[in-house]
Amino acid sequence: MELLTSYTFLIVAIGTTLLSFASGIIGTISVIKGQSLIGDAIGHATFPGIILAFMLVGVTDTLSLAVGAVIFGVIAFFFIQMITNHSKITLDGALALILSSFFGLGMALKSFVQGNPAFQNTQGIDDYIFGQAAYMLRLDVYLILIASVISLLLFIIFYHQIRIYTFDPIYSSTIGINPSLINFLVLSMTIILIAVGLKAVGAILIVNLLIAPGVIGLLWSNRFKTVIIIAGVAGAVSAFIGTYISTAFAGFPAGPSIIIVLSVFVFISMLFGRKGLVTRKFKKVRGESS
Fold it and tell me: At what angle do helices 62-85 and 179-220 cross, to 10 degrees?
């Protein structure tokens, strides 16, 4: 109980739980549309934006680095669109190309900065690769809170349009819904959540917060509203448990701990969910016996 009431734990737990709840809901849209890897590509592509922002401001200021991440996330998406629309390269190929090239640029810039005596206090940059939620500050939580609230409010306001667009973009355009606008809206929410969540789980692991909760929701239900609720709750619970594990046991970073817990929930859902292997086997045996 003493751990659960400590200031450090509460700061980290509130930030990661809010982030995972919002990411679980927003990420479910991409999972249903079969575009999960877009989040992965954008997450990796934000890293050079973080380094360039640091080179401009000279300190690891959370707000400045988040702005740099957002800018490069948008640039990466437009490059993906340009490649897929004006070449014969498929979406998967474009995502792989952007992911590797942008992240490679980020790593090159990181090596340059850390090896250049003109730049001081570069230690915090590594936290944006794998995440280091233990060093989250109140400002980080405030940014996550603002990003999560904005994303969830936009999702609630445009819920019906997003739901129709997710399952039938052609029909959505015939009833006056602008697919490009909804796609941009979903992308914007995704990029914002990625940008504020990098310090918590890192550029490499952030995609799991967008994909895993949605997969869990889809394994338990076919109803869109139920799926997003399960996804949000699964993300939040995983974040809280993962944060607790990292705080209670020294040497366990919060980001990877959260992802491990999420992975365990995915595995359980694959076995015992409504569409799980054990559940389907049980229904089959029960049907044959009756």
Answer: 100
- What pTM was computed for the model? 0.87
All domains of the chain in start order, with CATH:
2-277 (1.10.3470.10)
Q: Quick check: 185 and 227 in contact, CB under 8 A?
A: no
Which amino acid does the sequence have at 165? Y
Q: In angstroms, rounded to a whole number, what is the distance separating the alpha carbons of residues 82 and 238?
A: 36
In a structure prediction context, what are the per-residue pLDDT tens digits for the chain, which is 290 residues long? Answer: 666 778 778 888 888 899 999 999 999 998 998 877 888 888 888 889 989 998 888 777 778 888 899 999 999 988 988 998 888 888 888 888 998 999 899 999 988 888 888 777 777 777 777 677 666 778 888 888 999 999 999 999 999 999 998 888 888 888 888 888 888 899 889 989 988 888 778 777 888 889 999 999 999 998 999 999 999 999 999 999 998 888 888 777 778 888 899 999 999 999 988 888 888 887 777 766 65
Q: How far apart are CA 106 and CA 200, in angstroms?
A: 18
DSSP structural state of residue 158: T
Task: Enter the tokens of residue 12.
Answer: 């980290």
Per-residue tokens: 126: 């590594």
